[in-house]
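User: Please predict the structure of the protein below. I'd like the answer in structure-token form so I can feed it into my own downstream comparison script.

Assistant: Understood. Taking the following sequence of 297 residues as input:
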Amino acid sequence: MKGRSHTMVNEPLVRGLAARGHAVDVYGHYIPDDAAKSNVTYHALSKAGSLAPGLDIALFANSWLTRVLNPVKLLQRGQEDCAALFSDPAILDLIRSDKKYDLFITELFNTDCYLGFGHHFKVPVVALSTCPILPWANARFGNPDNPSHVPSMHSGWTDVMSLPERLVNAAIVYYSVVSQRLIYEPLDQRWVDQAFGPGVPAVRDMALNTSLLFTNTFHGLTLPRPLATNVVEIGGIHISEPKPLPKVSSRPLAFSLSRSSSRQRSLGGTRDGRGRRPSQVVSDTDATHAPRARLDR
């Protein structure tokens, strides 16, 4: 995906694999500044038509009709992504190359045209969802998706829904799944056939053959829901190990405790301390420049 936020979820997984000794090739739109220091080979793709300016987040919290139609807008955008992908020189070189891989990892978002690479290299496919699981992704993993208590990502509701909300939620789920299956899956098939030539399996079969799904969710934040064993939550993967605090200077310090009711500095501004109770203030300074530092009671 061309969205920067998607890369923020993918990158820790990529680097984790490389840190464990795997040779990783990444084809993406955002190359990290420290790419040369990592054990990952990055191949830059064009950022033309980036997702960032193309979607208004306000669309996800509008009328019930808009909520029903929003998933289809994502699927429409997926066709634009396929067109950009299979016209990119780096991708065309990859398809024509004789490279060998052991695993193919792709994002499961708004198109399945990426699945052709798994067949092309004859390797298992692992999918990664950078958001809560989209409606058309559940069936291929046998993942339970009951709209009576599992809210669609596009509904904006929780698992406690009124009857009208459940009906709208069901409409979102089923309209999304039917649209993806009947309209956009054949379009994905056309892209795959064009890119990889004859003999490519049906996109539907390749989707059902996906081995594993990582989903950027955590039940403490995105609500608990039933998950199949081949669906693994990885929410928080983007959070790195805490860095140690900077070491405190070892220079000699002189401390002064004094009573103060004067103006005090705070965050670049000042506040009037008059009328407040006297307080003890601890300050530090270089001992060589404060020969008269003392405890003043």
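That's the full token string. The chain has seven helices and ten strands.
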